[in-house]
């Protein structure tokens, strides 16, 4: 029997590196917030706008390129996506030396590397999914584990570089992060690709856009994306401001621990997940994430909150890649558009969830009843607001659980769409 997967080993490795690169696109700018603020005096709203531009651009890119890729093939778009990241990072790094207002250069660079990152998000999953295999969910989990490893790498290595060479050296580390996409652009120019769905058999988005299963799947990955990113983005601030844990410890034990557990959960599923029902694992993960959010928000013991944060990383690890697998199994003849719409749904959840938690954290203290409870518990306004914000965040894994429950019932009740 031919081992098809062995014929595409280099292709799979290039996709792994692609997810690693995509993690740098999303996580590099937030690590540079303080150096940029200190050097240029940017407000937090201006810095936060760069993150918003990043996510919005990726959503637009997800949808815009889906149909074009199906018509013209994956190779050229994957190569150009990596080149786009190189160009975007380079614009970002040299803006202070070329522009009177470097912020305009930061926005332009962000637009370029975010559009390219969104294209990677659309392309990498279907490339791996197209490779013949009896363990699709395991392959997808292993692929998406490299996002977590990339996130850890960009946070730790960038922080160590700035510590060693000074925060003013941030343009150098941004340029150094162009090396992985350069290597991968070369790889994608020569590696083989598994056949995609032929034009005559491919079903366009108009066939399924109103399908209830598909709509619920988009909601599921949106809620799952929110559940993943809220805890990840808010862990550091929560540990420092609410639990009064020093920032260095909070970052390592909060953000880095979450990312480590996120990657570990995906890695373990990639190795052993074929033995278990994916729906069941994901639904258990949703329930566990709900409990973790509640524990983090209500606990008065720092070590317990840190432990719950780490467990949450494992709990939410399959919500994004698992939804991709379940939906693609449901619609096996869909083209790249399927992954594009799901990626857009996940990106919207990843952007809207943390934003909503931030708004709730700012305004919860204005509710007299909640303010009175906080006063009785000895919490200041920041602590009360952030605890309530994280508690509200627990609703996202709960909503994902309800969506997965519907999808599982629909799978048992209805045949595959072919």
Task: Please give a structural write-up.
With 418 residues, the protein is mainly α. It folds into two domains: 1-190, Up-down Bundle (Growth Hormone, Chain: A); 205-418, Up-down Bundle (Growth Hormone, Chain: A), CATH 1.20.1250. The protein has 19 helices and no strands. The protein has helices spanning 9-31, 33-40, 44-64, 66-72, 75-98, 102-130, 136-165, 170-176, 179-188, 205-208, 212-241, 247-272, 278-298, 302-315, 319-330, 336-363, 368-377, 381-393, 395-413. Residues 198-202 have low confidence and may be disordered.
CA distance, first residue to last residue: 27 Å
Largest sheet: none
CA gyration radius, whole angstroms:
21 Å
CATH class of the largest domain: Mainly Alpha
Low-confidence stretches: 198-202
CATH superfamily of the largest domain: MFS general substrate transporter like domains
* Helix and strand pattern: HHHHHHHHHHHHHHHHHHH
Gross geometry? globular
Helix content range: over 70%
Provide the number of structural domains: 2
List its traits:
single chain; 418 residues; mainly alpha; Growth Hormone, Chain: A; 2 domains
Q: Quick summary of this structure?
A:
By secondary structure, the protein is mainly α.
Structural topology:
Layout: H1 9-31, H2 33-40, H3 44-64, H4 66-72, H5 75-98, H6 102-130, H7 136-165, H8 170-176, H9 179-188, H10 205-208, H11 212-241, H12 247-272, H13 278-298, H14 302-315, H15 319-330, H16 336-363, H17 368-377, H18 381-393, H19 395-413
Helix pairs in contact: 1-3, 1-6, 1-7, 1-9, 3-6, 3-16, 4-16, 5-6, 5-8, 5-9, 6-16, 7-12, 7-15, 11-12, 11-14, 11-15, 11-16, 11-18, 11-19, 12-14, 13-14, 13-18, 13-19, 15-16, 16-18
């Amino acid at each position: 029997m031919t081992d098809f997967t062995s014929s595409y080993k280099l292709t799979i490795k290039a996709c792994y590196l692609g997810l690693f690169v995509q993690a740098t696109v999303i996580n590099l700018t937030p690590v540079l917030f303080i150096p940029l603020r200190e050097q240029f005096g940017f407000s937090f709203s201006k810095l936060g706008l760069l993150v918003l531009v990043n996510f919005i651009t990726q959503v637009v890119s997800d949808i815009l390129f889906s149909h074009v890729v199906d018509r013209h093939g994956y190779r050229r778009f994957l190569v150009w996506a990596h080149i786009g990241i190189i160009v975007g990072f380079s614009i970002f790094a040299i803006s202070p030396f070329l522009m009177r207002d470097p912020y305009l250069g930061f926005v332009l660079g962000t637009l370029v590397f975010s559009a390219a990152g969104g294209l990677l998000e659309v392309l990498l999953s279907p490339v791996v999914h197209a490779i013949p295999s009896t363990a699709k969910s395991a392959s997808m989990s292993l692929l998406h584990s490299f996002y977590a490893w990339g996130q850890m790498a960009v946070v730790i290595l960038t922080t160590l570089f700035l510590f060693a060479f000074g925060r003013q050296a941030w343009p150098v580390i941004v340029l150094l992060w162009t090396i992985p996409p350069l290597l991968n652009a070369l790889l994608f120019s020569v590696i083989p690709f598994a056949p995609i769905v032929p034009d005559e058999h491919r079903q366009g988005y108009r066939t399924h856009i109103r399908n209830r299963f598909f709509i619920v799947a988009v909601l599921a990955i949106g809620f799952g994306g929110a559940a993943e990113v809220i805890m990840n983005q808010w862990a550091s601030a929560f540990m420092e401001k609410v639990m009064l844990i020093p920032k260095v410890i909070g970052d390592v034990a909060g953000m880095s621990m979450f990312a480590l557990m996120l990657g570990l959960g995906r890695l373990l599923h990639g190795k052993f997940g074929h033995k278990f029902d994916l729906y069941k694992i994901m639904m258990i993960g949703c329930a566990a994430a709900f409990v973790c959010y509640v524990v983090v928000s209500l606990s008065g013991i720092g070590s317990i909150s840190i432990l719950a944060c780490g467990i949450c990383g494992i709990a939410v690890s399959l919500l994004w890649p698992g939804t991709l697998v379940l939906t693609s199994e449901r619609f096996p003849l869909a083209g790249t558009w399927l992954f594009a719409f799901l990626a857009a749904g996940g990106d919207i959840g990843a952007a809207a969830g943390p934003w909503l938690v931030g708004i709730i954290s700012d305004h919860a203290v204005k509710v007299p009843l909640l303010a009175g409870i906080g006063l009785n518990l000895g919490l200041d306004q920041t602590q009360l607001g952030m605890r309530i914000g994280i508690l509200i965040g627990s609703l996202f894994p709960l909503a994902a659980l309800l969506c997965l429950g519907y999808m599982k019932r629909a799978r048992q009740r209805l045949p595959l769409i072919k």
